[in-house]
Design goal:
The protein is mainly beta. The protein is built from 3 helices and 19 strands. The strands form 5 sheets. Strands 7-6-5-8-9 form a 5-stranded antiparallel sheet, with no helix packed on it. A 5-stranded antiparallel sheet has the order 17-16-15-18-19, with no helix packed on it. It binds zinc ion. The site of zinc ion has 7 residues, from loops.
Amino acid sequence: MSAILKAPLTVEFPFTRSLGPIQSAFLTGLRERVILGVRTGDGRTLVPPVEYDPVTAEEIRELVEVAPTGTVTTWAWNHAPRRGQPLATPFAWVLVKLDGADTGLLHALDASGPDAVRTGMRVRVRWAEERSGAITDIACFEPYGGEAAEAEPEGHSGEFDDPITGIVAPARLDYTYSPGRAQTGYINALVERRAVGERCPACRKVYVPPRGACPTCGVATAEQVEVGPGGTVTTFCIVNIKAAHTANLDIEVPYVYGHIALDGADLALHGRIAGIPYDQVRMGLRVEPVWTEGARYPDHYRPTGEPDAEYDTFKELT
Ligand SMILES: [Zn+2]
């Protein structure tokens, strides 16, 4: 039994959103070193601002400016900052009630250690040197010796030259993925360009790729079974949307993605179908894998030229 595989996996995409008038004013204000909140119908000041009153659900339009100083209302020490966090050295996550605000703004506090942080401490904004209209325009908070200002939030038009109307927020998850025992066997076999599934000891179905258990019977699978290399297209779709930002999926549209039941498997896997005009792909088409040099899985499947499979032979294999 070979070692269980594991590898780093990163899932990331840029999330583009438009801001609307309130968030636009808030982020543009940060660029200009102005912190804006909103005033609700009952006179509370919310920072960061929201578009709708969280109590009454009424739309909020009144913008007010609050002070760049405030009080820590709660905090947590971050021992090991991760990529993309506000500070590269250990810091405190803090909720800061800015002078003039009634709610807390979540941000980072630059402090020498957890002993230097306490609820109730006074802090002020440290502005980023280069500001673009983002929450990161506040580089962090820092301890501040000054007294709590009796700040009454001042009305603000929210109007700026060249307002920020949209942002791109990159979303990223990076973690270590282990496929487990069964898929490790599957992946190791792919290195030798073989497809290996596992058979359920109860219903005798062969799962490819194997997940280690039969989802129908609820029992572990262990018996390895080699399947393929040929297979039958059980269903398919025509893809008309080009994959953007993905270096290894640079395929001209339209192309066909299908479910392929490899010979001997009781479950279809999916793969791209090529080597045939996209509008001639059909259920029952017999295909075989096409490998490219150095690849770890088939690049696509192409027709073998055999007669189509009878529907009854694959109708259960979706
Ligand atoms: Zn089973």
